[in-house]
Amino acid sequence: MPRPSPIKQGVSGGWRTDAPCCFGLNNELSGKTGYLLATDYTALSQVGQLQLGTATGTERVFVTDTHEKGTGRLLNGAVDDLTRGAVQNLNYGYDRGGNVTPISDASNIGAGVHGAA
């Protein structure tokens, strides 16, 4: 069993990693109800998308990262909630030296299904 990370240690009811992918990276993390339901990785083993939620519930959150081909730099980080849509949509820009210059959030959260803004 892999060594627990600080994030996994705080999960109530214990934790278990399931279904490692071909590179030995975790695809799922579960406790009593599930937490990390699925993970997609890029060809460079960077996290492409996380699907979070409970195994028994219908609410899901997707955390999606888009990386630049060749450099692997993060271009976009988006968080989508099935009940509200885009919660966060960060776009990253870089200067010629590779330093992050602008970061902008293009999301428009709105009222959503549950009335949360």
Describe the structure.
By secondary structure, the chain is mainly beta. It has 1 helix and 8 strands. The strands form 2 sheets. It has a 6-stranded antiparallel sheet, with no helix packed on it. A two-stranded antiparallel ribbon has the order 1-2. Strand 5 and strand 6 (74-81) form a beta hairpin. It is flat, with a radius of gyration of 16 Å.
Major beta sheet summary: 6 strands, antiparallel
Continuous helix count: 1
Lateral strand order in the biggest sheet: 3-4-5-6-7-8
Structural Rg: 16 Å
Span between N and C termini? Answer: 41 Å
Helix percentage: under 10%
Number of strands: 8
Structural category: mainly beta
Strand content: 35-45%
Shape: flat
What do the pLDDT scores average to? 74
Number of domains: 1
Spans with pLDDT under 50 lasting ≥5 residues? 1-17, 111-117
Q: N-to-C SSE series?
A: HEEEEEEEE
List keywords for this structure.
117 residues, mainly beta, 6-stranded antiparallel β-sheet, 8 strands, disordered C terminus
Helix and strand arrangement:
Blueprint (H helix, E strand, L loop, with lengths): L5 H4 L6 E3 L9 E3 L5 E6 L5 E7 L6 E8 L6 E8 L3 E10 L5 E6 L12
Antiparallel strand pairs: 1-2, 3-4, 4-5, 5-6, 6-7, 7-8
